[in-house]
């Protein structure tokens, strides 16, 4: 009778589980690629999961419908930045803010840093409630988008048309000419 309560197979399974949960995304991508290249069944499975026939892709208004060949099943939405399934998209699937969240001068009154410095990812994370969207006056804390739409690929997304620089320029114009919120 072995003194270990776990069989070697069970231990190996447990460890693999842990390794997969903790490995870097990069390592897992490389591993998946090599598994797919080495094992035909795995390759087939991956193709089945990641591609769909363009005939079952939901037609998004304003977006050119795909060709006949298989297309990617999962895309990243240019508006909400979430990954979505192109076969399950609908006109209410996406919630996002078409505008930009600016650091609010009054809410940051205790801070000495200029607004350009406050307008950073670090501050967004630390003070989400102090960043106000110019589309709806909502803040980053209760980040429910004010616009409802289809998930859209990057090409037809709202905000891809407005670059961050454009928005900063608008912001400068606003703050130099008596900021008006209404
Ligand atoms: Zn909004
Ligand atoms: Zn979306």
Automatic annotation (TrEMBL):
Top-rank lineage group of the source organism: Eukaryota
PANTHER family the record matches: C2H2-TYPE DOMAIN-CONTAINING PROTEIN
Protein name, per record: C2H2-type domain-containing protein
Organism: Penicillium atrosanguineum
């Amino acid at each position: 009778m072995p003194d270990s309560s776990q069989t070697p197979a069970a231990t190996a399974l447990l460890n693999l589980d842990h390794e997969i949960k903790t490995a870097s995304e990069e390592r897992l991508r490389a591993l998946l690629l090599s598994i797919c290249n080495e094992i035909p069944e795995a390759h087939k499975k991956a193709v089945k999961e990641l591609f769909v026939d363009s005939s079952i892709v939901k037609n998004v208004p304003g977006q050119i419908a795909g060709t006949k060949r298989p297309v990617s099943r999962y895309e990243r939405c240019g508006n909400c930045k979430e990954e979505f399934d192109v076969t399950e998209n609908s006109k209410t699937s996406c919630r996002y803010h078409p505008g930009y969240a600016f650091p609010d001068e009054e809410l940051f009154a205790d801070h000495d840093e200029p607004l350009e410095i406050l307008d950073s990812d670090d501050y967004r994370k630390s003070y989400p409630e102090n960043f106000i969207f110019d589309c709806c006056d909502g803040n980053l804390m209760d980040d429910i988008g004010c616009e409802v739409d289809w998930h859209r690929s990057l090409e037809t997304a709202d905000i891809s048309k407005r670059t961050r620089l454009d928005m900063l320029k608008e912001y400068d114009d606003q703050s130099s000419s008596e900021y008006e919120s209404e």
